Amino acid sequence: MEQVIDTNLLGEEIVKKLKTIYDPEIPVDIYELGLIYDVMVNEDYEVKILMTLTSPNCPVAETLPLEVEEKVKSIEHVKDADVEITFDPPWSKDLMSEEAKLELGML
What we know:
By secondary structure, the chain is an alpha+beta fold. It has a single domain (7-91), classed as Fe-S cluster assembly (FSCA) (GMP Synthetase, Chain A, domain 3, 2-Layer Sandwich), CATH 3.30.300. The protein has three helices and three strands, in the order αββαβα. The chain has helices spanning 7-18, 64-73, 98-103, and strands at 36-41, 46-51, 80-85. A three-stranded mixed β-sheet has the order 1-2-3, with helices on one face. The radius of gyration is 14 Å and the shape is globular.
């Protein structure tokens, strides 16, 4: 019998993994920076991540989404991961967590 995994718990594991990925120009992880808009996990343990970049001209526009995809795919039970980039709504400092703002001396 196939093991059933709670998709909510898997979602929490994904968030933990996302918090290990840092924007190379800002010493804050991409989750606290507010770059992750949504994490969706279906019953087949396939993950879709909707994220943005700090700007359309971001120097890591080519590599960061691939890093996110690879790290999420490395999580046990995740069968596949797809990252979609959006600029709607555009990223702003308002999307940052209090923790990120504190880290960057913005509070």
